[in-house]
Design goal:
Length: 256
Amino acid sequence: MKAIILAGGLGTRLAEETGSRPKPMVEIGGKPILWHIMKIYAASGIDEFIVALGYKGDIIKEYFLNFYAINNNITIDLNSGKTIIHDGNQPKWKIHLIDTGISTQTGGRLKRLKPYLEKDEPFMFTYGDGVADINLNELIQFHKSHGKLATVTTVRAPARFGRIAFNNDLITKFYEKPQSAEGWINGGYFLLHPKVIDYIDNDESIWERDPIENLAKDHQLAGYRHYGYWSCMDTLKEKKSLENLWESGDAPWKIW
């Protein structure tokens, strides 16, 4: 199973960090948050990734092109030009780094990636700034059990996020960002059938609006309730909180 990770947005709320690099490359504990997200997937055996690039996507390409050199000891023989990368405990991931445009919205980025998906094979889909101690194998079993086109992982969080209304496990309404109220919100970590791409019109389509709302109206969107840890990294405060957790040696999302 493949996992798509959105990594093309501007990250304006984290401008202190994203002026020179895309948000998924902001580091927690010396590693990009994108790496942390991949490690969460890999903990459940998912090791093929499609990264949707946009803003400063070249930085993400450079990181993975030099991944083994960055994360291992190396020997460089300047006389012969030979480089030896010493063996290390590195992930055996396959990573597709795909340019999906600078201004493309979240739904548009997903639609552009259709050629990289198998026709009838479900895939994972999430944002490049959210971590959780989620059991993805349980998510997969839940998705198989209801037979709908889409599953969104729902989490509890403050009122600044959009809200989700349930009828048993089916989602009846997907509110983008109400002014008040608390409850279940979109935590990313979707599991989707490729047919959901038919709900996306073009580059301007925002995944969290018409596509998801119409999936809910068609009774094709179920919500997997995650009761454990979840956090996004929208602000510098959230970034510092994640950094502190990692430095404490007790980061909840470190499930590998």
